[in-house]
Amino acid sequence: MKRIADSAVRRLSLYLRFLEEFESRGLTTISSDELAARGRTTSSQVRKDLSFFGSFGKRGLGYSVAELAARLRQILGLEREWQVIIIGAGKIGEALAQYRGFSQRGFRIAAVYDSDPAKIGRRIDGFVVRSIDTLRADQAKRSADIAIITVPAEAAQRVVTLVVQTGIRAIMNFAPIQLQVPDNVAIKTVNMAMELEGLSFALSNR
Amino acid sequence: MKRIADSAVRRLSLYLRFLEEFESRGLTTISSDELAARGRTTSSQVRKDLSFFGSFGKRGLGYSVAELAARLRQILGLEREWQVIIIGAGKIGEALAQYRGFSQRGFRIAAVYDSDPAKIGRRIDGFVVRSIDTLRADQAKRSADIAIITVPAEAAQRVVTLVVQTGIRAIMNFAPIQLQVPDNVAIKTVNMAMELEGLSFALSNR
DNA sequence: ACATGTGAACTGCTTCACAGCG
DNA sequence: CGCTGTGAAGCAGTTCACATGT
Predict the structure, then answer these.
(1) Which nucleotides of C are covered by protein (CB under 7 A)?
(2) Roughly how many angstroms between the first and final C-alpha of chain A, as a whole number?
(3) pLDDT of residue B1
(4) Does B193 sit within 8 Å of A104, measured CB to CB?
(5) Where in chain A is the domain with CATH 1.10.10.10?
(6) Of the candidates A97, A129, B112, B120, which lies 20 to 30 Å from A24 by C-alpha distance?
């Protein structure tokens, strides 16, 4: 099976959002053209993206909203609930711990960790902050699927190495640093300062 | 002038980070090979990216660390300070308001806004939350450059339209929704749930 | 008639390879 | 001789255009 582009997966997520929106408005059928308009892309793009996984549409008619949404959830792995842990109980970790957008989509926050004794044991948004030292033992019984890293840059690589050792295979990194992980671990880095620099560049070059 | 790829601009930001790291270690010269190794790319990629803006290297030698860093700062528009406002004083807005990674790079948080009377006037991390109703008047005298949107999805489009009206030409959006802006406005959307879905996809397809 | 699904064409980013210069 | 700068080649992602099914 040929590898699908990262950008295509992002678009699938988008399409799913739009389908849910259409579904809640009571629409039962949608064309690639309508999906494209909603997502600022082209109808060919939509059809190509979908055709990668099969043929879900009816010629002359379009796609069944419910059916396509279900298929996308399946493709994206959203039929099950994923257990997520947050490492780093600073402001950003705290914000993510209570972010409703995650649980809404089946990402369940299982625990929040930190290494700072002043934070361990504190309660934030319903979670008692646990010591990072308990992570390994916790994972042995609970086994979370995804780790969100919100520790300072200096600590990030050490934390990620530990996280990978406990068997976690997917990481979302908010530390402004490029992390080394084995090939079989998926990692997405969100570097907010870098995004701002992109805007700075855009402002400076017009 | 040919348009440069978005991915290339991201890499320039990365290179600058590495250069600063090298600089602090006292290195004065660096080759495209060494930069590439640090950034998980290739030396040709590095040279191509840089050659887009001129020739900064010395053949047989490499690049002057200080000179290249300065040139990148100039290219990225980081020689000046940018005024940033945050709209939405929820947990995420609050986390960003105090995030040191921004000020470190010359992005100065000028104000935090919200529309909730319960939040307006409250002090968070040194900022008194201002009413969104004062934004237009504030902008007339202060004129921020960049707006970070951390309001709920339902409010985001309305807020962005207002922000654009006040003359802001760069937006970083954390609301999980695709926003409409005029062509002359730069916008970067960070959709954290969508990033997690990318990880979910990766976990489901191995 | 309408909208999908898909090869083929195209566009643009990345990698290669080497001439050019220090 | 080493490393840059850059055309040319290669590759991946996007768009086109049309045959196909309903």
Answers:
(1) 1-7, 12-17, 20-22
(2) 42
(3) 67
(4) yes
(5) 6-75
(6) A97
The pLDDT of residue A50 is above 70? yes
- A91-115 tens-digit pLDDT: 999 999 999 999 999 999 999 999 9
Mean pLDDT of A178-188: 96
In CATH, the number for domain A6-75 is: 1.10.10.10
Nearest to A112 by CA among A97, A95, A91: A97
For residue B58, the 8-state DSSP code is: B
pLDDT digits (tens, 9 = 90+) for B177-206: 999 999 999 999 999 999 999 999 999 998
**Quick check: B102 and B109 in contact, CB under 8 A?**
yes
Q: Is the dihedral of CA A177, A180, A181, A186 positive or negative?
A: positive
Q: Which of residues 4-63 of A touch strand D (CB under 7 A)?
A: 5-8, 41-42, 44-45, 47-48, 58-61
pLDDT at B99 over 90: yes
Which residue's alpha carbon is at the shortest distance from the C1' of C2?
A60
Q: Nearest nucleotide by C1' from B29 CA?
A: D3
Helices A153-165 and A135-142, interaxial angle, to 10°? 40
State the fold for domain A82-194.
Answer: Rossmann fold (3.40.50)
Q: Where do the H-state alpha helices sit in chain A?
A: 6-24, 32-38, 43-51, 65-76, 91-97, 100-103, 135-142, 153-165, 192-204
- pLDDT value for A2: 80
Q: What are the distances in angstroms from CA A88 to CA A72, B21, B200? A: 32, 24, 21
Q: Using 50, 70 and 90 to split pLDDT, how confident is the model at A135?
A: very high
